[in-house]
Amino acid sequence: MAKRKSTTKMVPVPSDSIVPERDLGRAPVLETKHLGIDFGGLTAVDDFNLTVGATEIAGLIGPNGAGKTTVFNLLTKVYEPTRGAILINGQETAGMNTVQVNKAGVARTFQNIRLFNDLTVEDNVKIGLHNQVKCGTLTSILRLPSFWKKERLARERALELLSIFDMQDMASHQAGSLPYGAQRRLEIVRALATNPSLLLLDEPAAGMNPVETAELMDTITYIRDKFQIAILLIEHDMNLVMGICEGIAVLNYGRIIAKGTPDEIQNNPQVIEAYLGKQD
Description:
Layout: E1 10-13, E2 17-20, E3 30-39, E4 42-52, E5 57-61, H1 68-75, E6 83-88, E7 91-92, H2 98-104, E8 106-108, H3 121-128, H4 137-142, H5 145-162, H6 180-193, E9 198-202, H7 210-227, E10 230-234, H8 238-244, E11 247-252, E12 255-260, H9 262-266, H10 269-276
Helix pairs in contact: 3-5, 3-6, 5-6
């Protein structure tokens, strides 16, 4: 597989970060300021500052145990930060819970797949549509005409989203019966169903073979272009990261040690040391 390379021009912004040139003049979808969390006497994340442009594909990388998934848990309010601020589309998320953050525009997938295995593929996606297709309790109980109309709209939208991964023919399958790679893709579809402005992908290529990974790279770019959203991903597959990410932050022991373009990150001595150890 030929190695891809992002050609996006990255430009500085006032927050001492970089965003794609096309996002200049638009508010960043994500800003974190001095974000940190302590667990007892252990500091898991400290002074985490990151800006993600409105349509940027950004990467968060680092060795195992660096704190990457902890950052995602902070952004989605699974964990409450000990200090610092998180802004989504300029809105401070202090005091929000996980559901409110999702409604504000943040959706995610998980390192360990979390689907409703006993439900169908279609129903898993419909659950993600709760922000768009709403139906009152009485309407649902009495099965009024408006209920069936919204059910039809939900089904159409679910199938449309599944078609991104050519999974519409699997709509009636039980989610837990799908192959591993298909479950990964279904989790992304369900996250997209919540209509996010920022999609967080936690190791989306985990368990995929090289062909599936190449297809995933194309799909991530397609999702960004079609929905005009930002994507922040955690990933250990460096071909994927360097191939599609425009800005990359490197985390080590809970702190960012480098930020920059793929070329800058690949040639950064601190990054090389974090991954390979100090050379004598």
